## 1
Amino acid sequence: MSTCASSVGPGIPPPARVTNGLPGFHAAWYGQSGYMALCPGTRATATVAYHNSGSLGWVQGRMGQAAYLGTWREEPGQDQPSVLGGDGTRGSPQTGWPRFDRLAAQPAAYVGPVQVAWFRFDIQAPQTPGTYRLGIRPLVEGARWLEDFGVFWEVTVLHPDGSAPRRTPSGPANVFYDVGDGVSAQDIHEVHEGVARAAAFISDSVGGVLKRPVAVRIYIGMDEVVCCLANANGFRIVVNHRTWRAPPAAGPDTWSAPAERSEIAGHEFVHVWQGHQGTVGCLNGPIWLVEGMPESISYRAVVRDGLIRQTALDAFEKEWVSSARSVPLRDLETSFPNDVHPYNVSWLAVDRVLAPGSQGALRAYCERVGNGVPWRTAFAQAFGESVDSFYSRFEAYRAQFVR
């Protein structure tokens, strides 16, 4: 039986030349140790070097003069906690960082101009296999952030048997995050992961892009009725809402709560994508199709990437569709009552009947609706059958599905 063994890849050498003598505080990236493939729960030490390219020295322990490494974009975000390391607060693991958002302090008492500081920090692999990233940027605490060279750490968490998981994709372009006070490292990661997986699946299997920047707001709310809400400009996740904290689909017989939260974030991202197809998007139209489309795409993404087993999803959907109050799918064009389990029925309609194979027709439909074609006409053009014909075919399929 195979056992897991951690490893570290080759280091990245410094550039051939760097700038020197810039007025004030400045830094230039100067090489780093290699990316890691770690067994779940194990620790490793990372090193990154920065050359003092400014005219002022860095003085350890002195506010306004001491250099640190801080967390940065894209994940987890500026001054945000990471699932890879921290001081034990904001959901970060205790790995000896000076703070949850400060990876390391300058190692020497003084780092003068043209000198190099080798910052070292410990990382702890999460328990869930996947690809994790940690954005890094140097700063002089209390003075300014130094140059952003796009430095990030990438950690692959292996399966317990030592095999590598499917690589988690990087986040899509044009998506920017606004994280509120007190949001945990795990919540930040799950939202990023869900968006990245859904966006990658769309790119690979559906098509269509975001046409302008969008904002994702992650925050602790007060009395919001729903946990998650999206439009063409972005979406919000209220992390203390019961649907996010304890998602109904998660359980011992289905899949984990983190996997379901990633699916929820992916679902909301698909809504944003819908709003960017054609001129005005396809967020208007029959509710079952507006909601069934992101249910299908986001679940396909997390199944493809191994977060959820297809057999578990099939069993879950069958149970929920079977136990719902049954109403014709056409009734879900304009209403979405909870007791009919509308998300499950909508998933079934889109995923298994409307677009069971390639999902490029979903984009074709959205583009037509987004360009002003009435939804029933766009439906017939994109899917090759009338809405009424589809409704008849769906009801026959559902009757067999719930047996």
Note: The chain has two domains: 7-157, 175-401.
## 2
Amino acid sequence: MASREELIRMLHHIQYEIRHCMLIPEWRDDAHILKEAIFLSFFVHARVLIDFFQDTRGWPDDVFSSDFGFPPVKLPLPADVNTRFGKDMMHITRERLRHTPESKPWPIRETYSAIKPTATAFVDHVLDAFGPELPKNEQALWQELQQLLHKAESQIIVAKE
């Protein structure tokens, strides 16, 4: 188990993952490579957060939301999202052949909507439980993230770069 000091230091990394998952850069449908890069980035950060919020055990140095006093949550993810993480992303497998033009698109909105309420609740929890102990600049990042997550209801937050 990490010390409180280590947990506070880890919060910078968790804030980074939440920010880069929940704040998606603006994209253009005609810029296919840019759009692919943006959504790949989203799913990489989403996968990290799914494990962070749902799991309680892993490698000895893994950190989970439960380490911060935030109970693990079973996220309402699309049914095949874990298979897609394992077979369609970061690996070239024959399982990719199962897709049709209809099943090929990734469930971006569904995955985002499944993570956002828990990410928002975790940000609230961090500010309540750890806020005063965070360095001022880190506190400001968490507060800004909290405002953005609460302001935008359930839609995807598109950040203008």
Note: The chain has one domain: 4-159.
